[in-house]
Amino acid sequence: MIKAMDITVTVNGEVFQKTIEPRLLLSDFIRHELNLSGTHVGCEHGVCGACTILFDGMPTRSCLMFAVQADGHEIRTVEDLGTMEDLHPLQEAFQETHALQCGFCTSGFLMSILPILEESTDLSEEDLKRAMEGNLCRCTGYQNIRDAVQLAAEKMSSGGES
Amino acid sequence: MKLPLPELPQFDYIKAESAERAIDLLQEKGAAARILMGGTDLLVRMRNGALAPTVLVDIKNLPGMSAISFTKKDGLTVGAAVTMNALARNSDVLHHYPLLAEAAESVASYQLRNRATVGGNLCNASPAADTAPAALVLEAELTVMGPKGERTIPAMEFFKGPGVNALEAGEFLARINYSNPPKGWKGRYMKIGRNAGGDLAIVGVAVMGYPDKDAPSDFRFRIALASVAPTTIRVHEAEEILAQNPITETVIGMAAEAAQEAATPIDDVRASARYRNAMVKELTRRGLVDVWSSLKKEA
Ligand SMILES: Cc1cc2nc3c(=O)[nH]c(=O)nc-3n(C[C@H](O)[C@H](O)[C@H](O)COP(=O)(O)OP(=O)(O)OC[C@H]3O[C@@H](n4cnc5c(N)ncnc54)[C@H](O)[C@@H]3O)c2cc1C
Ligand code: FES
Ligand code: FES
Question: Are residues A76 and A9 in the same domain?
Answer without folding.
Answer: yes
